[in-house]
Amino acid sequence: MGAWTKQLRTTDATAAGVIIMLVGLFLFAINDAMGKWLVASFSVGQILLVRSIGAFLILGPMLVARDSVQAVFRPEKPALQALRVLASAADVGFFYAAVAYLPLADALTFYMAGPIYVAALSHFFLGERSGWKRWTAIFVGFIGVIIVLRPSSASLTWPSLFAVMGSFSLAVQLILSRLLRNTSDSVLVTWQTVGVLIIGVTLSANAWTTPDLTSLIAMLMLGVVASIAHMMMTRSMKLASASLLAPLQYTLLLWAIILGVIFFDELPDLQVILGSVIIIVAGLFIFHRKKVVGAPVKPETVDRV
């Protein structure tokens, strides 16, 4: 009876973890759509600034409640922390610069390649050796990125390059997060939010448009929603196995397509769909190989808090 009860609790926890992860990813998709709507009227710097203030509406009480204020000012490995802050700011900034011109699904497709970049970088910076099967999947994933990128003189654009640079910045951020795994999530998120805030102040100095109340609330909600989504995804990973949760991140692309059609009248073309399918298959295979060879599997999720 005791074993059955324990198994039931484990099943319930796993189901809860999956649901929480899916809701968190949906919130990120809503957040991305809100950002695309706002960047049509306001500068990237202004959006970064106000959304960071919104994020602190959530982070501030969390830090006080957990008595983590002192830990924020004594982080481990300050040089790596600074690099992670720069990577995080680049990730967010390049994303908004990309969606100002690209369809939401196109931009998210580039970000779906983040786990592929992480797999390649992990070999060199984390000592996670990859066999020929995983390297083949990495190579195939890069082909998917190239298909979406359309590298020709007629179609290669700055917005596409912004999306590629943003997704690569995300991968660097995730690598640095592993190197800083002894630092609490609250400290990591606080410093990356500070970094985005500083970049926002710098970029918006000469590009400020006074928002109306609706737009101001929407920009603040970018930070609030992203923080809540981040906490939900962190919680889900404590309830369900990472190998189960990792593939769920690709629902972001589905939501991007749906929201793009509903709010922006955007529909990805066949080339984007083909590239995204290749990227997703390659990413899922990399997750599978990590599980088979016994390496720790952690969802490399799109995370722009």
Please report the distance between the alpha carbons of the first and last residues: 44 Å
Low-confidence segments? none
Rounded to the nearest angstrom, the radius of gyration is 19 Å
The level of helicity is over 70%
- Tell how many strands the DSSP assignment holds: 0
What proportion strand? under 5%
SSE run:
HHHHHHHHHHHHH
Our count of domains comes out at 1
Structural class by secondary-structure content: mainly alpha
Global outline: globular
Brief account:
With 305 residues, the chain is mainly alpha-helical.
Plain-language structure description:
The chain has 305 residues and is an all-alpha fold. The protein has 13 helices and no strands. The longest helix has 38 residues, at 2-39. The radius of gyration is 19 Å and the shape is globular. The mean pLDDT is 84. It comes from Tianweitania aestuarii. It holds the Pfam family EamA. Keywords: Membrane, Transmembrane, Transmembrane helix.
